[in-house]
Amino acid sequence: MKKRLLSFFLALTLLLPAVYAQGLSPSTADLDQQMETEHFVFHYSVKEANAPKVLSDLKKSFEGCYGRVTTALKQVPAGKSDVYLYPDISSYHTAFSWQNLPSSSVGQYYNGAVYMASPANPGTEHTYSDCITIAVHEFVHLVIDLFGRRQPTYLNEGLASYMAGQTGSLYYVREDVRAKRPLSLSEVEAIASFDGGRLYGYGHAYVDFIVKNFGNDAIIGLLEGQDRETLLGQTAERLNQRWLTYLEKEYGDRPPVIPDDNPPSVPDGNPPPIPDDDTPPAPVGFTDVPDGTYYTDAVAWAVDRGITAGTTATTFTPGGNCTRAQIVTFLWRANGSPKVSGDMPFTDLKPGAYYYDAAQWAVVQGITKGTSATTFSPNTVCTRAQAVAFLHRGAGSPASSVNVAFSDVAGSSYYADAVAWAVENEITAGTSATTFSPNEICSRAQIVTFLYRSFT
């Protein structure tokens, strides 16, 4: 899914300048139906498939992000904002007189309004939930435009990606940092518009860097066009040093991961456990789970089902690493927290730990054999391969008829069948059309999303 979002970003970056240059106005003649909400007017067609659900979900997404976005950016649209919803991707492309447009392009902000293909018919590159998230991205562009000045592309797209919670493009940043070739601030400013992945990834990281180090008002100052070094009280050299330090801290090498179901091959250097899930579930009100992200509904579902209570009463930590203890606990709770009996072979699991019963259940069900005959390594981070393997085994290891063409998933690997099953059941689409990234650490946002898609 991440890379599919990136393909949308790239298509948008390449095509919008041509639209603006030609002064094209999209056709809206067939969108003769309307639904008004507090802050929006939705224009749609009688051909809209499942209109009640689509409009309800879009209303929830747009209205849900309205207050957060306008408050953060201190800009409020005059009157209600128009959203033009085309019944399918073909009619959306035709409205702009675009021919042979990639199916990755499903929405955009243009001339004071948001235009998009229906989430019910988004083409082959996106899912329903993708389109809901993209809608938030485009509304952020609408609000940014209220500053009345042309923004640097990396800031404009980075802020929209940041506020929509679209983290897929950060893959490029992570890869650059781990390869010891992160971009300096001057290089970020010079990213060509056609380098869609890095444009959005570094733009997103840049906004996060500014907010964490200088506060939200610094973003406002940048959008107003204030000189960056003067605004932040930093020389260009010092600011770049802080930027590179931030990148290394946020995206540098992570602790080693012990492969599942094989003896440990590296010394145990586990990070301290995240204090999660030993308290009753709290209402969804996490300050770090904004409306409209790909994982928002999944977190709400997980809390409602008693699967997780977050890392504190007010935070979920979506980007945090998911540990092996957490994933078996989440899966156990999703299955109703069944009680089982049997021997516990692992010496590193103590009765009374929040994950003890879950791990015992996982062993009895054949979901895991641990990292050795006597260890489970509860605090070790969990990879994407391990996550789908656990889910697949928890579902009874069903066979799949899908031939997965991921270049990084060998047919002989322990997770190959699990990946094929997950793709077939739309639990994941990989990190690109050709990669699954099995050894990437699975984030807490990803695992609850995997669970949500497999149980709903």
Topology (elements, then pairings):
Layout: H1 2-22, E1 33-36, E2 40-44, H2 51-73, E3 81-86, H3 89-95, E4 107-110, E5 113-117, H4 128-145, H5 153-164, H6 170-178, H7 185-189, H8 196-214, H9 216-223, H10 228-232, H11 236-251, H12 296-304, H13 324-334, H14 356-364, H15 384-394, H16 416-424, H17 444-455
Parallel strand pairs: 2-3, 3-5
Antiparallel strand pairs: 1-2, 4-5
Biggest sheet: strand arrangement: 1-2-3-5-4
Structural class: mainly alpha
Give the overall shape.
Answer: globular
Q: Uncertain spans, ≥5 residues at pLDDT below 50?
A: 1-23, 254-283
- What is the strand tally? 5
Mean pLDDT: 81
Distance between the termini: 18 Å
Structure, described:
The chain has 456 residues and is mainly α. The chain folds into 3 domains: 2-145, Glutaredoxin (3-Layer(aba) Sandwich), CATH 3.40.30; 153-251, no CATH class; 296-455, no CATH class. The protein has 17 helices and 5 strands. It has helices at residues 2-22, 51-73, 89-95, 128-145, 153-164, 170-178, 185-189, 196-214, 216-223, 228-232, 236-251, 296-304, 324-334, 356-364, 384-394, 416-424, 444-455, and strands at 33-36, 40-44, 81-86, 107-110, 113-117. It has a 5-stranded mixed sheet with strand order 1-2-3-5-4, with helices on both faces. Strand 2, helix 2 and strand 3 form a beta-alpha-beta unit. Helix 5 (153-164) packs across helix 8 and helix 12 (296-304) packs across helix 17. The model is unreliable at 1-23 and 254-283 (pLDDT under 50).
